[in-house]
Specification:
The complex is a heterodimer of chains A (287) and B (321). Chain A is α/β, with parallel strands linked by helices. Chain A has 8 helices and 8 strands. In chain A, helix 2 packs across helix 3. Chain B contains 12 helices and 15 strands. Helix content of chain B is 40%, strand content 23%. In chain B, strands 1-2-5-7-6-8-9-12-13 form a 9-stranded mixed β-sheet, with helices on both faces. Chain B is of the alpha/beta class. Classes of the chains: A alpha/beta (287), B alpha/beta (321). At the A-B interface, strand 1, strand 2 and helix 2 of A face helix 1, strand 1, helix 3 and strand 15 of B.
């Protein structure tokens, strides 16, 4: 494993990044995208540790500082609706060209999730997207929010709780009412479901996760091995600003690394890890 | 300790990527180069900012703060490094062990590890640039580390932005932050946890996702920066960041101590309405999915004060606030 820090030209500015290389030929390149405000290593060095775990499984990875943050220059465009997809693409292309990798994957959390989906939309070689949803759905819906539970609803729940069949019925009704309308899922997210394997790793309560799953059912996402959706829950109390408790950090790393191990190709048995690479793979852009 | 790259991996690819390790900014008159030195017993990543023209004799090491402040204050420290390099000072910023891109985990982070890493970084700076004098710069806990490193090495210069003078108060603020996080992860009927008890029982406390070890806590509780300083005779600038313009007793005490030791020390105050947020995330939600920079003015004034002081140019009061 080896870390190579680099500056990537980006217009008049430069983006700082670290490429973590595994031993031998990489199985693919994984782009690690944090939310706004965090540097390339993410808070608590979460991406640094993820990069090393990925390298142990044969993946190269790239973590970058968005403009103005970390060691990058420029000004931060702090707008959830305009994620730094161009920056991420520029950096990915430079590194993918050097590595000659065939497969790209993205992992993002919060705003980074939107960026990860945007990269998937633009890069045909992006086969896998992981969105870490830290108690909010900002990465995949236009605006997240919970439906308030009023006093009448609370009373009905208490009554229903005493009658099992009624309890089930009320629960089903409540779940249906609190579904996120299809049109609120971002087009980028919906597009990614048709071109890549998308995994949503939700960190939060079981109740909120159930609502998410019910809402996602409306999308009818395919699940044919090469594309489609998988959702998972890491139970946690509501998390703000991605202040991920220490005990959850290894779980997140393990989950995303295992997912990539599953979704990205393994090296063919006849390719020696130290086989020389030839050629440069130029990446076409999806339009 | 030595400057060395990591030694594992595919050398051909790494060598090709290594051509991107350096960037030149002609407008600013600086060059920035990534370095991967061994500091504090492990590899880490740093950036050496140097002037394109003739360098000055003094180089600066930037000492980052503790925990989440390492992330939050970097947006002030990095432009400061570039501004100092523009004025001819070579500057090294780096991730201490347990932080960012460093090799070792955060479990070993403490006052002594910060201090050890700062001292190692000074060696790296001297070896890489040939500077004959070293200064240390840091903000909040990083300012405390900078002062202690300057004292330990009898360095030439020190700049501390809002340094932590009494570690006990800082330790209490960390425990409070921890309680807030713990409360979020509990059911309504559970009582508030006692962070000291958790620290005692488990040896580590979760502070905003970063581990506060019992050792670090003890180091902080016993820390009085003024009393710890005994050797530093260089020039120093202490910048207080506060809402009002009145110097605080702790800052005055620190400056008096630095003067009593034989150095020339100045205290300046950057007053700003948002001063209490110094050390917290710089960008805050502003509605509609946007975030705004709430500390741009504080950062600009800190850099103006620092560069003005470092170059001997008088800072325009209007510019520095």
């Amino acid at each position: 494993m080896r870390d190579v820090p680099i500056f990537i030209p980006y217009g008049d500015q430069r983006l700082a990044g670290v490429v973590t290389l595994p031993e031998g030929t990489p199985r693919g390149l994984v782009l690690l995208l944090q939310g706004l405000g965090a540097p390339r290593s993410h808070k608590y060095g979460l991406w640094t540790r993820t990069a090393r775990a990925l390298a142990d499984r044969g993946f190269a990875s790239l973590r970058i500082d968005y403009q103005m943050l970390g060691d990058s220059t420029g000004s931060l465009l702090a707008d959830l609706h305009r994620p730094p997809v161009d920056e991420a693409l520029a950096a990915t292309r430079v590194v993918a060209r050097h590595l000659s990798v065939e497969a790209v994957a993205t992992i993002g959390n919060c705003m980074g999730g939107r960026t990860a989906l945007g990269v998937a939309e633009a890069l045909p070689s992006c086969r896998s997207v992981t969105c870490i949803l830290p108690g909010n759905l900002d990465a995949i819906v236009f605006k997240s929010g919970e439906r308030a539970t009023g006093p009448v609803t609370s009373r009905a729940r208490r009554v229903a709780a005493r009658i099992p069949r009624l309890k089930k019925l009320v629960r089903r009704m409540r779940r249906k009412r609190s579904q996120i309308p299809v049109q609120r899922f971002t087009p980028t997210f919906r597009a990614a479901l048709t071109t890549a394997r998308v995994r949503l790793l939700y960190l939060g309560t079981e109740e909120a996760y159930d609502r998410l799953v019910d809402s996602l059912d409306q999308l009818g996402a395919p699940d044919d091995g090469d594309r489609g959706l998988r959702t998972d829950l890491i139970p946690a109390a509501p998390i703000t600003s991605f202040r991920l408790p220490i005990d959850l950090q290894p779980q997140v790393i393990e989950a995303v690394v295992a997912w990539l191990d599953e979704t990205l190709p393994h090296p063919p048995p006849d390719v020696r890890p130290d086989a020389p690479r030839t050629g440069v793979r130029e990446e076409a852009t999806r339009t | 300790m030595s400057m060395r790259g990591a030694t594992l991996g595919d050398d051909a690819v790494a060598d090709a990527l290594a051509s991107l390790r350096e960037a030149e900014d002609r407008a600013a008159g600086i060059r920035e180069r990534f370095v991967t030195p061994s500091i504090g017993g492990g590899l880490t990543v740093g950036v050496l900012a140097t002037p394109l023209g003739e360098p000055r004799a003094t180089g600066w090491v930037i000492c980052h703060s503790y925990g989440m402040e390492q992330v939050n204050l970097a947006t002030h420290e990095v432009p400061a490094a570039r501004s100092l390099a523009s004025e001819g000072f070579p500057v090294l910023r780096f991730h201490g062990q347990g932080y960012g891109d460093s090799e070792l985990p955060p479990d070993g982070v403490g006052l002594e590890s910060h201090l050890r890493d700062a001292i190692d970084a000074a060696d790296v700076l001297v070896e890489a640039t040939g500077v004959t004098e070293v200064g240390f710069l840091g903000a909040r806990f990083g300012g405390t580390v900078a002062a202690l490193a300057a004292d330990r090495l009898r360095a030439a210069a020190l700049v501390a932005w809002e340094p932590i003078v009494r570690g006990g108060a800082y330790a209490r603020s960390l425990l409070t932050l921890s309680v807030l996080l713990q409360l979020m992860h509990r059911q309504r009927d559970e009582s508030a946890p006692d962070p000291k008890q958790i620290l005692e029982e488990r040896g580590v406390l979760d502070v905003q996702g970063f581990p506060l070890s019992r050792r670090m806590h003890e180091e902080l509780v016993g820390l009085d920066l003024v009393e710890r300083l005994g050797s530093f005779r260089g020039r120093s600038l202490i910048v207080q960041v506060s809402k009002g313009p009145q110097p605080r007793p702790d800052a005055e005490r620190l400056v008096a101590r630095l003067g009593a030791l034989g150095g020339r020390s100045e205290l300046r105050v950057v007053s700003d309405e948002r001063a209490n947020a110094f050390g917290e995330p710089r960008h805050r939600p502003a509605g509609g999915g946007r975030k705004i920079d709430t500390q741009a003015e504080i950062g600009r004034r800190l850099i103006a004060e620092t560069v003005g002081w470092g170059t001997g140019r008088r800072t325009d009061p209007a510019e520095a606030g």
